[in-house]
Amino acid sequence: MSAASLLSINSGSSSLKFGLFSITETKHLQRLYQGQLTAIGGSGEFQVSDADGRVLHKQNPDISSHQQALQILLDWLAKETRSLQLLATGHRIVHGGTRFTTPTLITPDVLEYLQTLVPLAPNHQPANLLGISTLQDLQPGIPQVACFDTAFHHARPEVEQRFALPSHSKLKAVRRYGFHGLSYQYIASVLPDYLGAAADGKIIVAHLGHGASLCAMHERRSIATTMTFTPLDGIPMGTRCGSIDPAVVLYLLQRGMGEKEISDLLYFQSGLLGVSGTSDNLAELLQQSDTQAQFAIDLFIHHSTRAIGSLAAALGGVDAIVFTAGIGEHAVSIRDAICKGCAWLGVQLDKKANLSGQACITQQNSPVQAWVIPTDEERLIAEQTLALIHTDNSKYRMSL
Prior knowledge:
The protein has helices spanning about 65-80, 110-115, 125-140, 160, 180-195, 245-255, 260-270, 270-275, 280-285, 290-315, 325-330, 330-340, 350-355, 375-390, and strands spanning about 5-10, 15-25, 30-40, 40-45, 45-50, 55-60, 60-65, 85-95, 105, 145-150, 200-210, 210-220, 220-225, 320-325, 370.
């Protein structure tokens, strides 16, 4: 008899990350494979690892489209997992708007609404939805579930969600939504494993990667976060500028720049890339000695540290800081600098612990602890998908 499995898909503009999980008899998830297809639209790379991170398969096919990327993945799965029956697929969807705050089964009506949100996340939402439509074409009988990055933040206080704008029908959708919610929700779910009873305290999580944001949590719920209306806002990122005076956009329009030109500037030519002039990859910048590269790093550290101070004010204090995502999990010197910048809050860094990759990187008696906790969005997507298809009171209930 075939074992049931779930597929998690995180479809980006030029990449596709995935995780495959089997469902045990006790309805728990066991990771089987994880991997990614990168450089879609060119000479790509397809890599698959096992649950322990050991590379099982690697090839460099030309990947012209997301449809071809998914076909490559499905062909590999069909060949290597004959004993598994794919029950459903869960997708990361960056924006759920005001309508979707929980995982939702994909229907034509749902897709139609999600398409209307493309202007709110123009460089993420289309790729997310393309993954869904492509899989519908390739595997039309498999249920698909949308899991939203904005959902974790939807219950924040109203003063955190409203802009100081008048009540107007055209402004109804203009809110501080917040993003990276799947990552933050996963961290919230595992905090007790690391912090014990302190997990329900005042925690600031720094999701630092090519896209970066921070989130203040209390009782493992979002209280405030740095990204707002779109994933452009907040701290400087790989190619995104972060927070900027809106009048800058008006100024650029007056100077003759077009909408697309301004969008490309803010989303793809700014951040670490724009300031350094050489790279959007922080690991590469750390290897460079020129002043512009160092200034880009300093700018990233400064605004990350400043954001922690702002979030601590929203919480009324802080008990712990958590670093996660690519930079947060791997960039030792960045964690070092941010922790030093937070010494006034009570962070006492343990340099040896930070260098050796320990989970807790502060001294034992540090008033505010700092932790490094790997995120796992693919697992959370699978968990949310499994929970939805087994919810008794859901009209989308399915049986294994």
